[in-house]
Each structure stands twice: as C-alpha cells, then as structure tokens.
C-alpha cells in the first residue's frame, strides 16, 4: 500500500482508527459485554471499506481524465460492486451476527468524528 501524500487525509485516516477503537472500548465498558464492541468494530470496518472504495473510485476517475470512457466505465463498475459488497457485509454484521445496530452506527460514525476533529484543527490553526 502506498502512503497517502496528503497530510490532512493521513490525519483523518489515523484519527478514524483511534475514534473507532475508543468507541469500542467505551461500548465494552458501558455494556460489559462483547457484542457492542464488536458492533462498533464492524461499523468501523464498513466505513473503512466505503472510504477505500470512494478513494479508489476518485483516483481512477482522476487518473483517466481525458483518456476515454472505457476506464471511467470500469471504475464505475468497480465502485458499484464495492457498494454491493458493502451492503452484503452490513447485512451479515447486523442480521446474521446480530450485532447491535446502534453500536454498528457508532463505529460507522468514527470517520465523521475524525473529519470533525480535522475541521476543528483547521479552524483553530486559522486555515
């Protein structure tokens, strides 16, 4: 895997992992069980898959700019295939593993928390 050249995206990716881990630990402390922390981690995995899919799709479109419609079409097929896989993973996490939906939602919110932290960081530094 190639390191992300944009420092803001690197911080968001790192902060998202930290937020997900902190939410999982908090869920474990509050519920004193394993289902909620696993749900948070499952939601974090879903948002990670989604983030990587969006990032790969944007990279594909940016790289094929002006080349023709075939690479863009392949990129779109990959994009929608990733979302089908994401929907299947969400189904398995909540319906088959029966992990708490609120915990899954909390884990999926870890990216939102990381973006919020980065926005506050940018405002506080005058950017």
Could you write a compact summary of the structure shown?
By secondary structure, the chain is mainly α. The two termini are 29 Å apart.
Radius of gyration: 17 Å
Please state the average pLDDT score: 88
**Spans where pLDDT lies below 50 across 5 or more residues:** none
Strand content: under 5%
SSE class = mainly alpha
Q: Could you state the oligomeric state of the chains shown?
A: single chain
Report the order of strands and helices: HHHHH
**What is the overall shape?**
flat
Span from first to last CA?
A: 29 Å
Count, helices:
5
Percentage of helical residues? over 70%
Total strands: 0
**Which sheet architecture does the biggest sheet show?**
none
Give your account of this protein's structure.
- This protein is mostly helical and 127 residues long.
- It contains five helices and no strands.
- α1 (7-31) runs antiparallel to α2 (35-63) and α1 runs antiparallel to α4.
- The two termini are 29 Å apart.
Write the layout of secondary structure elements.
Blueprint: H1 7-31, H2 35-63, H3 69-96, H4 101-108, H5 110-124
Helix pairs in contact: 1-2, 1-4, 1-5, 2-3, 2-4
